[in-house]
Amino acid sequence: MDNRRTGWFTVLGEDGGHMAVQIVVADDEPHVVRALSFVLTKEGFSVAVAANGEEALARIREERPRLVFLDIVMPKLTGMEICKTIKADPELKDSLVIILTCKGQELDRQNSMLAGADEFLTKPFSPREVVTLARSLLTRGEA
Fold this sequence. Notes:
By secondary structure, the protein is an alpha/beta fold. 41% of the residues lie in helices and 22% in strands.
């Protein structure tokens, strides 16, 4: 049995052991993907990444993450389209979604929530802000 505890959040694996919470980060800006991956991995989360919407949806279907960070504007599929797809899929609907944008306009926030997003984060953001939001959302999602 694997009894390792990584980061704040762990889940019980099929073998009864603990495993890190899976997160997918999807953004077409490589520096954003690197920054998010680094800070989340450092906190003990297991992170998979995608550079466009189609790749993101494939990763989400493959990984079945507990939390997804989606850029609002990406090639091939937008973050909004992916969010709607996740929330409409019975096997994925429990994944928590944070929409990322550089715009930060209230209309974007409202549209994100209408698409089913659980939270909204405006770029640029601090590593502490990302970790705090992820932990808060995961804790809320477990309640």
